[in-house]
Design a protein that fits this description.
The chain is of the alpha+beta class and 590 residues long. Helices cover 40% and strands 14% of the residues. It binds iron/sulfur cluster.
């Protein structure tokens, strides 16, 4: 049924594990991945749980399509409480780890407690072993991954690991798999570090039980045709996400000099063509016909990427326009296990404000690398920066200049560029995030009249629900068009599970999940007051470029929140009403 209907619960303190069933009811209500992980997090975490204490849990979840031949289905989700924001966190990552995780025979793994000593958790089908990690504690990601594979004695094992940043509880430490694929945002790496888990190795040899195999395979072929017919796909395949750099800059949305200006004089040196010229090999996540990943290699610097966000935030955002320098910075983020987005937006702010100075003729990219090192090993000011944008901003007295919402650093698009983008950042369940709704393309394409805020608001709400369903399925956002659910996905889920899914029931599962995440956040103290842009973005206009002078006024933010909450069936304070929870059949979860 493309589901095994069971989860593996691992107690790190006692180095023991047990297998539990996942109810059919939960599968139907929450679909998988993000949805199921969110339901378990809400049920099992008491309000106020210390994200870095033994009470937090790290949930790894596959979806009903993970491990099948459905296009773009290799991803897995992590769900936990974030040490960066103190609220809900989920991330997903591509590569090949997700497929291997599913092939162990579990739909979900829950890690609980804290290991008494550094440990590697090795899951091979339905057996779990705990290996001494003292020999790899302190090592960077690439070396860790190679060493863990050697230690488990299986070159085909896939490894999820943390680097020194996760060990040192840097609040925006990432989780890494397949060397440079990352579940990067929100500090999942620090959660694993707090549990003294250096790595999780998985090796599965089970077949994924697809119910209606023949019809499923035919539908997979149709899904591929839909993808190949999507006019958006060829450029994604050729250039990957760096394709965004040129248009973003031309339209004045680029973060330049810590989100002061929206347009750099030129991004030719770091645009799609520049990075294509530096690509030595096209790479791909498992089961993906798009293959948008770019292999970069120069001397010791080897990685998949850089992706657009990294280019924007470590590029124009801090006045760097050398692609090789950006690739090298990306490499060190990967090796230390650090989220490039939060690191880039935070370092942009400390460079602008002079908190980190640039002595003499020292090249700026060397200063950036030194700062990453200081953050990773908590040296000097780096120890403060390691606490993340909100705490560092306050402690260093530069709060006004640090772009963050709910403690999460800004992605690589200035939210003043569009009301829809601003609302998407303001209301994202894990803090400032561009991946929960993507109205920007439509705004630039003229989908809505200038004064049609309601159209934008409804779109953000609808797409958040669709994306939650996509991340529960789980498929990559790119092959089917950014954030769009294609009806073929419902067919694929139905044929693989034997359950009846439609686009509408998928969206309903997504909406249920979105509301549950909000319930979690409200329980942790989130209110309407946390859903606004930082003051700078309603007060200081973009300094130059086509959108010069643009702000998102506080009045417009109020209107957007009022309307958004009403669409969602939330109170004026942003709390899901009892009626909404009842309609979504989740009142008993709260
Ligand atoms: S589109 Fe790109 S990121 Fe998405 S699954 Fe395919 S290769 Fe991976």
């Amino acid at each position: 049924m493309a589901r095994y209907g069971k989860l593996l619960r691992i107690d790190l303190h006692s180095a023991s594990w047990m297998v539990e069933p996942i109810s059919k009811r939960d599968e139907r209500k929450f679909l998988g991945g993000k949805g199921l992980g969110t339901a378990y997090l809400v049920r099992e975490l008491a309000a106020g749980t210390d994200p870095l204490g033994p009470g937090n849990k790290m949930i790894l979840a596959a979806g009903p399509l993970t491990g099948t031949s459905a296009p773009g289905s290799s991803r897995f989700e992590i769900v936990t409480k974030s040490p960066l924001t103190g609220i809900y966190l989920d991330c997903n990552s591509g590569g090949h780890f997700g497929q291997e995780l599913k092939a162990t025979g579990f739909d979900m793994v829950i890690l609980e407690g804290v290991s008494p000593a550094p440990v590697i958790v090795s899951i091979r089908n339905d057996s779990v072993t705990f290996l001494d990690a003292s020999g790899v504690w302190g090592k960077n990601i690439y070396e860790t991954e190679n060493e863990v594979r050697r230690m488990v004695g299986d070159p085909e094992a896939r490894v999820l690991s943390i680097g020194p940043a996760g060990e040192n509880l840097v609040k925006f430490a990432s989780l890494s798999n397949d060397y440079s694929r990352n579940a990067a945002r929100g500090g999942g790496g620090a959660v694993l570090g707090s549990k003294k888990v250096k790595a999780i190795a998985v090796r599965g040899t089970r077949d994924i039980p697809v119910v209606n195999l023949r019809a499923f395979q035919e539908t997979v072929e149709r899904a591929k045709q839909i993808i190949f017919n999507n006019p958006w796909v060829p450029d994604q395949r050729r250039y990957g996400t760096p394709r965004a750099a040129g248009p973003v800059n031309e339209n004045g949305l680029m973060p330049v000099d810590n989100f002061r200006s929206g347009k750099a004089s030129s991004v030719e040196a770091i645009n799609a063509n520049a990075f294509e010229a530096l690509t030595f090999k096209r790479l791909s996540c498992g089961e993906c016909p798009v293959a948008c990943s770019k292999g970069y290699r120069k001397n010791e610097v080897r990685l998949e990427g850089p992706e657009y966000e990294t280019i924007a935030l470590f590029g124009p955002n801090m006045g760097l326009f050398d692609p090789e320098c950006i690739a090298e910075i990306n490499y060190w983020c990967n090796q230390y296990g650090i989220d490039t987005i939060t690191a880039g937006s935070l370092i942009g702010a400390v460079l602008e404000t002079g908190v980190v100075g640039i002595p003499g003729n020292t090249p700026k990219h060397e200063i950036v690398k030194d700062t990453l090192h200081a953050i990773t090993f908590r040296q000097g000011t780096g120890d403060i920066l390691a606490e993340g944008p909100r705490i560092a901003g306050r402690e260093l007295g530069i709060e006004y200049f640090v772009p963050e919402i709910k403690g999460m650093g800004f992605p690589g698009y200035d939210p003043r560029c569009s009301h829809g983008t601003a609302l998407a950042y303001m209301t994202a369940d894990r803090g400032a995030c561009h991946l929960r709704a993507w109205p920007l393309g439509r705004e630039l394409g003229g989908t809505w009249e200038e004064d049609d805020l309601d159209g934008r608001i409804m779109f953000v709400k609808e797409q958040q629900d669709e994306k939650a369903a996509q991340e529960s399925t789980i498929v990559c956002q790119f092959p089917y068009g950014i954030g769009l659910l294609d009806p073929v996905l419902a067919e694929l889920i139905s044929l693989s599970t034997g359950e009846e899914w439609t686009l509408d029931t998928m969206k309903e599962a997504g909406e249920r999940t979105w509301n549950l995440a909000r319930v979690f956040n409200v329980r942790e103290g989130i209110t309407r007051g946390d859903d606004y842009l930082p003051g700078k973005f309603s007060q200081d206009g973009i300094e130059s470029g086509p959108l010069k002078g643009k702000v998102i006024s506080r009045g417009d933010q109020d209107y957007m929140l009022d309307t958004y909450y009403a669409y969602r069936g939330w109170t004026a304070d942003g709390i899901p009403t009892g009626e909404t929870l009842k309609r979504l059949e989740i009142e008993e979860e709260t």
